[in-house]
């Protein structure tokens, strides 16, 4: 490319900016563990912000492998947009995210647009949300750490990661609540390390959802209520978003 890397960077920057100006966007929101990532994965017009950032977006969102540098995150996102627009995509689906996904910042123009985009609200039963978090953040994440650094060191790193993540929100939890949930987590990790059992992990997951994440999301949702255009379970939301894309004028 004439102009080299700087020209390429400018081209990719303009790709994202142009999409924000020219395309339609809709956000997928919902409580923690409701399966928003699964909805994003099921759609051919989605932009997987968490995938590009290699981070799940929450206090517990770190993966076993590092996040990309900011410039690489922006490039990945722009290339994804470019490929999809080349296929004729003019309406994009995003997960409703904050400005920061781990250590990666969303492009400012995109984030500003997200404050006004229509919202589809994904719903799921509390029990199913607990099981999904157990699978993603306990069972699968342990395996991920063990693949990266080996079985023994992997479990130690996984255990330290969960405890550090919980400690990272101690001020928001409050001392008594943190101590109670941390004790359950320590017991759960001891049992998991000893015999592979994950049952006790449900205790701290349920506590975090009921006492921290759900009240926080309920408060945040109040300011977005007027933008919610559809509510439903996973199958209903996927169906609605596919229909929404099909009805968009070409």
From TrEMBL:
Please give the InterPro entries that the UniProt record associates with this protein: AAA_SelU, P-loop_NTPase, SelU
**Family matches, as Pfam families:** AAA_SelU (PF26341)
**MF terms in GO:** tRNA 2-selenouridine synthase activity
Look up the coiled coil feature and give its residue ranges: none
Q: Can you give the residue ranges of the tRNA 2-selenouridine synthase AAA domain?
A: 24-245
Biological process terms from the Gene Ontology for this record are: tRNA wobble uridine modification
Q: Please report the name of this protein according to its UniProt entry.
A: tRNA 2-selenouridine synthase AAA domain-containing protein
